[in-house]
Write a structure and sequence with these properties.
This protein has 117 residues and is mainly alpha-helical. It has one domain. It contains five helices and no strands. α1 runs antiparallel to α2, α1 packs across α3 and α2 packs antiparallel against α3.
């Protein structure tokens, strides 16, 4: 029961961030699963991706209902992103866990610095 509540909490926080800022998966779910719930890095990333499918469908639908989404442009971004997902997943399977963690931490630092400055 406790684990179920923790996962629901992770999902709630990710959904809030997704609705507010358009982020939630990699930025929120992966660190929470890896750090707070002790998920292995690869499992946290894969779980996040599966959850993002649900979150993105709901958020995209709501934003479209508000008239904020351009479906054509979303397809132009989303379809090529599938190629990136396939390549990124293949690369992830070949990298050491420590390398993945350091690369992800570096990405978060760059994003934070970019937003601050």
């Amino acid at each position: 029961m406790r684990r179920t509540l923790q996962l629901a909490g992770v999902g709630t926080v990710a959904g809030l961030f997704s609705g507010l800022f358009g982020v939630g998966g990699g930025v929120v779910i992966v660190p929470l699963l890896a750090l707070a719930m002790d998920f292995p890095t690869r499992v946290a990333a894969a779980t996040s991706l599966a959850a993002i499918a649900v979150v993105a469908a709901a958020a995209g639908g709501l934003q479209a209902a508000y008239g904020n989404a351009d479906v054509g442009e979303a397809a132009l971004v989303g379809l090529p992103a599938v190629v990136g997902v396939v390549a990124g997943t293949a690369l992830q399977q070949r990298l050491a866990t420590r390398t993945l963690r350091l690369a992800f931490a570096a990405l978060l630092v760059v994003v934070a610095a970019t937003l601050i400055f």
